[in-house]
Amino acid sequence: MNLFIMPHPPLAIEQIGQGKEIAAKATVEAMNRIAEKVKSLAPKTIAVITPHGNVFSDGLCINIEDKLSGSFVEFGQPRIQMELNGDFQKALVLCSGLRASGINCLALDAVTAKKYEISTELDHGAMVPLYFILGQYKDFRLLHINIGYLPKTQMYQAGKILAEIMGDGNVIIASGDLSHRLNKEAEDYDEMGAAYDGAIVGMVKDNNFLSILSLDENMVQKAGQCAQKPMEMLIGAMDGYSAQAQVYSYEAPYGVGYMTAHIECTYEDKEHLISQYLQIKKDIDEKNKVREDEYIRLARKAINTFVEKREKIDVPGDASEELCINQAGVFVTIKREGRLRGCIGTMAPTKASIAEEIIDNAIQAAAKDSRFTEVQSEELDELEISVDVLSHLEEVTSRDQLDINKYGIVVTKDYRRGLLLPNLSGVKDVDNQIEIALEKAGIAKDDEYKIQRFYVERHEIENGMEKAY
Ligand SMILES: [Zn+2]
After folding, report:
1. Which of 57, 215, 259, 423 lies at a C-alpha separation of 20 to 30 Å from 322?
2. What spacing in Å lies between the alpha carbon of 189 and ligand 1's midpoint?
3. Which CATH number fits domain 292-390: 3.30.420.140, 3.30.700.20, 1.10.10.10, 3.20.20.140?
4. Mean pLDDT to the nearest integer, 316-323
């Protein structure tokens, strides 16, 4: 079985790049080299795993149409079009295989597309790699797979099911760009970007796919990439195989990292990476749990008991005075694999003690955050929990008194209020902080409103997944 990792810069296509493609010369050459390799393999079916089609947070989306088409109209080139035969039989088998394993998936055809108000057209994540392949080889059916933001274990399992359906003679491509935050002058620059790209390229070169699964989620999120989820599924496809990778190219011509790689897989009934990953993760989670302080432990206990027994715990008899006597507003934030899973809090004390405030908000965050489904018992071991204890609110008369890293803010107009915690990723500056808070409150920018600031005492454990390798 042959797997490829390919980026998807539309600018690498000459008619779109209009000269800019020259900067991505190594990528273009490597894409053509992959196309030649694919031609020599002559697969009947090519599966493309893309991060830019119809991407859902809770499931994969598989195109089951028998004709698949798309164009580069979004990139100013409506005349570059493609129409391919879809491998709808494999697509249907994949959908039922996923569902049988408890993985959500949407079988996309014209009818379901209409229902969800989405399109069946191919996305650029699939079309850029296909454009290069079609330049050399056309005699294949396409299996178009849109990733979902599912937990790693499910993406891995989905890849394993895909490999079984594809069989050895076929080709699977994971489409994805590495960091988009490499440009030091750009506003969204993040030093984690280059660190991520370096780590990924090195790990692929070393056939160290276990480490890609085990990468620190903070780094993965901060890198601003679109390759991680497609790669998780691709790594699942290697389950039981011995994998030999070759990186064809890496470069970052437009401040975005592009890697091309070929991974040749031979079936050997090898040890399964996922069980090794789960063991690493379990060890780290256990170590982290030991490091948790009283605040986090209390929130975790409240969440576990509520999810397992639907009961609210009492304040433990051995809780410290600090927790039992003081009152404050509290925010409880729950994450899973670095992604927000629930966050609920109170701006000012509503209970007799911080301990009670934590218990209540922890349960709310796990079960009542309307943006998410309720936390399930099988997720409990994997939750990362942090607790923010808020100071009193202070009036702010000038923007100089604000600092996005130090202070959270509350904006108020009449009964409308919006709160933003300090030190959040994605908040650029004070103006941006106020803007987001206003939006949350439903207050117009040019309305008159009051700003208050507060600081928080944050109780959290830094994710320690990077210690895995
Ligand atoms: Zn992308």
Report:
1. 423
2. 17
3. 3.30.700.20
4. 94
Residue 281: pLDDT over 90:
no
How many residues are recorded in the chain?
Answer: 469
Instruction: Give residue for tokens 């164009």.
Output: 71
Phi first, then psi: give them for residue 17, nearest 5 degrees: -65, -35
φ, ψ dihedrals at 171, nearest 5°: -125, 140
Ligand 1 midpoint to CA 193 (Å):
14
How close is the Cα of 349 to the center of ligand 1, in Å?
44
Question: How many angstroms is it from 397 CA to the middle of ligand 1?
Answer: 42
Dihedral angle sign, alpha carbons of residues 251, 252, 254, 256: positive
For residue 464, pLDDT beyond 50: no
Tell me the mean pLDDT in the region 79-86: 96
The Å distance, Cα 69 to ligand 1 centre, comes to: 19
* Ligand 1 centroid – CA 176 distance (Å): 6
> Which tokens in the block code for residue 447?
């309305």
Q: Where in the chain is the domain with CATH 3.30.1490.150?
A: 394-458
Question: What separation in Å is there between the alpha carbon of 146 and the centre of ligand 1?
Answer: 12
Q: What pLDDT was estimated at residue 467?
A: 31
pLDDT one-digit tens code per residue, 118-171: 999 999 999 999 999 999 999 999 999 999 999 899 999 999 999 999 988 999
CATH topology (fold) of 2-277:
Protocatechuate 4,5-dioxygenase; Chain B (3.40.830)
- Report pTM: 0.82
Is residue 433 predicted with pLDDT exceeding 50? yes
Return residue ranges of the chain for CATH 3.40.830.10. Answer: 2-277
Residue 287, CA distances (Å) to 281, 282, 464 in order: 10, 9, 9
Ranges in the chain annotated CATH 3.30.700.20? 292-390
- Give 43 Cα–ligand 1 centroid separation in angstroms: 25
Region of residue 269 (phi > 0: left; psi between -120 and 50: alpha; otherwise: beta): left
CA 279 to ligand 1 center in whole angstroms: 31
Q: Give distance in angstroms: CA of 387 to centre of ligand 1.
A: 33
Read off φ and ψ for residue 163, nearest 5 degrees.
-60, -40
pLDDT higher than 80, residue 403: yes
**CATH 3.30.70.920 corresponds to the domain 394-458:** no
Q: Say what the pLDDT of residue 463 is.
A: 56
